[in-house]
Amino acid sequence: xxxxxxxxxxxxxxxxxxxxxxxxxxxxxxxxxxxxxxxxxxxxxxxxxxxxxxxxxxxxxxxxxxxxxxxxxxxxxxxxxxxxxxxxxxxxxxxxxxxxxxxxxxxxxxxxxxxxxxxxxxxxxxxxxxxxxxxxxxxxxxxxxxxxxxxxxxxxxxxxxxxxxxxxxxxxxxxxxxxxxxxxxxxxxxxxxxxxxxxxxxxxxxxxxxxxxxxxxxxxxxxxxxxxxxxxxxxxxxxxxxxxxxxxxxxxxxxxxxxxxxxxxxxxxxxxxxxxxxxxxxxxxxxxxx
Length: 290
Prior knowledge:
Helices cover 86% and strands 0% of the residues. By secondary structure, the protein is mainly alpha-helical. Helix 5 runs antiparallel to helix 10, helix 6 packs across helix 7 and helix 10 runs antiparallel to helix 12.
């Protein structure tokens, strides 16, 4: 296992950890009554995930390039793609690539689990940060205060994972949320987890037109984007607003955040099943375009 691949796994864990913690913005916003400020401040944290994505993308792409180049070096670049896929040497390279990408999806699951377990302490920490920001009035001053040794180490000590008893308590409550949008979140999370990875693998299945295949990830992600924008996000927003208006209790938002994290975790498991079929779907579309 190379250093670059270990870095890919680490960045994947980090990205999915932060993408899970983003649910805390709603909970902390309700807790403090400052939802807009909560989202604004979390965007700063989300910059870390965006930077990690920028570094991760070329590293992932290089995995596919190495697989294709090794196969073409052994068998020759003159072979048509369909013949190339039948060659044992190239199929072995595809098997190694599939194994590595499945490890990346597993890293996404690990990051989601860590993020889910850190949600309760992170919400408390984030709520205090929102109130501190209100006092100091600027992000640079907030950083200077937060990064003092006393505050920094104190914050780290509060980030203890949720206990099994607290998890059972939340999950044991009567579900006061629409079940449909939670089920859809499993499907959406699964597609988002595997979309780009399936497109990269499709490039290895269609090596002579791998750039075309790799750029077709919206074929998979498009449906998830529509469902997220039209069903999941609006439903979560309504529940959050109702809690801010006093028409729902804060525990409903806490339960929603917990179940969104759980369904996101289940979505990363679903991604293992969707990964290869989605890659063949993308390859088929790429063949139609060329």
